[in-house]
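ASSEMBLY PREDICTION REQUEST
Request ID: AP-0331
Submitted by: J.K., bench scientist
Number of chains: three
Total residues: 729
Priority: normal
Notes: Please return the full assembly, not individual chains.
Input sequences:
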Amino acid sequence: MGVTCVCQVPVAEGKSVQQTVDMLHKKLEQLGGVKQGNFWVDCETYHATANATGQQSKQLYVMHNSEAPLSCMALYEGGPHLTADANFDVLMVKLKSHFQNAKSHKVESRGARYRYCDFLVKVGTIAMSSSAKGISVEVEYCACVIPADCLNLIKEFMQSFLGSNAPEMPSNKTEGQLYTPVDCVDPMSQYLELFGKVRKQQVMTGSGVR
Amino acid sequence: MEAPPVSVMPVTGGAINMMEYLLQGSVLDQSLESLLHRLRGLCDDMEPESFADHELVYLLRGQQGNPFILRARRSLLQPTSPWHLRYLGQPEVGDKSRHALVRNCVDVAASHSLPDFLNEMGFRMDHEFAAKGHVFRKGQMKIVVSKLSRVLVPGNLENTEPLSLSYLVELSVLAPAGQDTVSEDMKSFAEQLKPLVHLEKIDPKRLM
Amino acid sequence: MADVMNVGVNLEAFSQAINAIQALRSSVTRVFDSLKDGMKNKETLEGREKVFMTDFQDNLQSVNRDLNELERLSTLVGRPSESHPLHNSGLLSLDPVQDKTPLYSQLLQAYKWSNKLQYHAGLASSLLNQQSLKRSANQMGTSAKRRPKVQPSTLVLPTQYVDDVISRIGRMFPDMSIELFRPNGTSAVLLVTLGKVLKAIVVMRSLFIDRTIVRGFHENLYMEDGKLDIWSKSNYQVFQKVTDHATTALLHYQLPQMPDVVVRSFMTWLRSYIKLFQTPCQRCGKYLQDGLPPTWRDFRTLEAFHDTCRQ
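STATUS: Completed
Returned structure:
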């Protein structure tokens, strides 16, 4: 559990998603990163079918992460979140008359996991309904738990293999979050934000990037 | 916190349909010691676990049909352990060949943000109570002897009042759907507890 | 071998004493011989008893006489072993088969060496004390003045004093919390928590730091049985490196006369890691080198450097 930064990397010009991912892998290996298995993160979206109070219903997201394969995380955008065991998925099935699973909205990111010193780097292909939509890069600095302490360090590291594509940080952190130890929710909410962005790009471009 | 279900199934994504087989009864406070004594003799050789739980019952009302009920339990003895969220389906009592009440059951361990999260989902707390007692185990059977108390001031567990002068006795097994043979075992175990306590399948609808 | 000469003065007495012992032994043997043989065959019972009695009396008298002679001689011999400078080990010199077991000469050699070592160590310690906090300074050894020997008294300090020193140091640094444990006997183990950056376990012997290990802020410090884990290293490379540097610092900060100053200097140095992840290297200006932040802190200026960027 360290400080995590998740960002989207644009597909290189004239390249496919897979080619860009391969390029990133190569850069990481040149740097000295060692491949350590695979990872996946997925996110399901649920709509409340009918709300007794009649207010605008928010979307409920249920996410899974291969780092914690027996858990699942339920969260509202900007709202409370819940960490539960995998049986929560069964419960959502029981709740189907109240919460409908928007199957077409399921987003996932799968890819390789690299270790470089105390960094954990995960390069994933973001897919919606089994077609690739983009590339996610997650960088975790495992040795530190205070985001404010190591933001510059992570930034420098990301620049070393993403070049100019390295994102500006911090994107979604308030002052308080910067100075308190991170929890396991933080990377997931970053993925949620990223998936939301990809979904919007999808709507805007129509067919989308390959 | 209730003891974990005895049959631990590898639930991946949780596609397995678990059923709870249940027999219930009650015993007067005076007879509690002799029942515990009998249970210590009959059950698996382990120290009987004591528990003190706080259960909150949440309802989610849809536009039509019955409200959806979820039970959230937390341990008062071990405040750091996770919350226990439980869904119980409609009980099936009709089948005479089955010796126990059968209902669908989903157990979820959840973080401490559970009450807030349920509120966000639209659930509203209906009622709460405290349960204190002992858990025994025999094979995959679980025997819970507990005293239920009313919470007089919402949220304040210091101030409770016993619901009755007796203890609730529940004999339950968690098994995948279709394993009706477990109810045979439960019946024979219940026989051995007579005449201290009569465990029966009780239709909750009859009581309403 | 002067000791042997001293004994030689009394050699005459020794040989006389040995003769006396022999005489005593033979007269005692005679007593028991006559007792064993019993009464000799004589005509009358009275005659037999008389002869036996006189024989027995004669024998006992000769024993008495020999014993007196021996006692007289033994005062001349004296008690050489007590006054020997090597105590009982000095008696090894009396071993006649010295060629086969040259223990005594070896012992003397070792003794000479240990004396020399103690003397030189005393000199070295007083020389080093002149170098403020610097053990590895080059300019030394010129003054051959002999200094009085230093007793290592700082190895034994009352626990109360150690507690006081540690708590005083703890109060000096608000961003650093120091907990003191005594898991085994009187030796203290300190658990130093530095901000939300790192935790260091410092094993003390009296007020000397024996060993230190640095782990991440969120890493486990206890073993399964709940005891403080003072052995296993951190899972993170950065803290393994910091542990190495901290061990170097332990060797650097040495002042045997004032161990509390050493502990304070070490803690001051350790505290400079509070910005471990936030400070770029003072030489190359970067945060990372080979995936590690600047893990070296200069002993004097406390400036941050990468391991390979320091001079």
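REVIEWER COMMENTS: The longest helix of chain A spans residues 185-205.
SIGN-OFF: pending second reviewer
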